[in-house]
Amino acid sequence: ITGRGVVDFLTSHPAAQNLVFLNLACDIARYRLLWEVDVERLLPALPTTLRSLNLNGAKIRRWHASLIRPLTKHLEELSLAYADLTVHDINSFFRPGPLSSAPSSSPTSSPPSSPVSAPANEPSIAEESSAPWVEPTLHYLDLSSIPAITQSSLFSASCVLLSPTSMPLEVIELGDKAISSLREGRNTNKRLGWVVKELGRRGWYVRDNNGAGGNQSGRRSWKMGAMWWGMRKCPVAWGEVGGLYGHYMFKK
Question: What is the percentage of the chain residues whose pLDDT exceeds 90?
Answer without folding.
Answer: 63
